[in-house]
Specification:
Elements (H helix, E strand, L loop, with lengths): L1 E5 L4 E8 L2 E8 L2 H10 L2 H8 L6 E7 L4 E7 L17 H10 L1 E5 L10 H8 L1
Antiparallel strand pairs: 1-6, 2-3, 3-5, 4-5
């Protein structure tokens, strides 16, 4: 059984920036979550999540030995640190936005045992 959940149920993220380009690494907690992230976290889905910020292109790089994907997102920072009027000109909050907005079908075996998301599956069994 799977539930549609935000990707932060099975992964964490790191972000960086250079000029008007942000990069976000999405890293699965468990090997079992890696296959789903690798298959379903596409460039198109990530671009759709950041289009409202002006993002124009996303490149995806696979890092399978780290259970990670790195997304390079162009034109996502309002011109960059020196020219953006945004509160977060560096784009550090973009990783949090991706973790909450990217919804994927997730099974219980992908979620760490200490995660509060384990409760979501217990609720469906009763």
């Amino acid at each position: 059984m799977t539930l549609d959940l935000p990707v932060h149920a099975i992964a964490h993220a790191r972000a960086g920036d250079k000029g008007d380009v942000s990069n976000i690494s999405l890293i699965a907690y468990l090997d079992s979550g890696w296959d789903t992230i690798n298959e379903l976290a596409t460039e198109k889905k990530v671009l759709d999540i950041f289009k409202h910020l002006g993002a124009t292109k996303v490149q995806r790089y696979e890092l399978p030995k780290l259970n990670a994907l790195n997304f390079v997102i162009e034109n996502a920072l309002g011109g960059g640190v020196n020219s953006s009027l945004r509160l977060d000109r560096h784009g550090k909050t973009l990783s949090s936005h991706l973790l909450h907005e990217l919804i994927l079908p997730i099974s219980e075996d992908m979620i760490p045992s200490n995660s509060p998301y384990q409760e979501k599956f217990k609720d469906t069994k009763s």
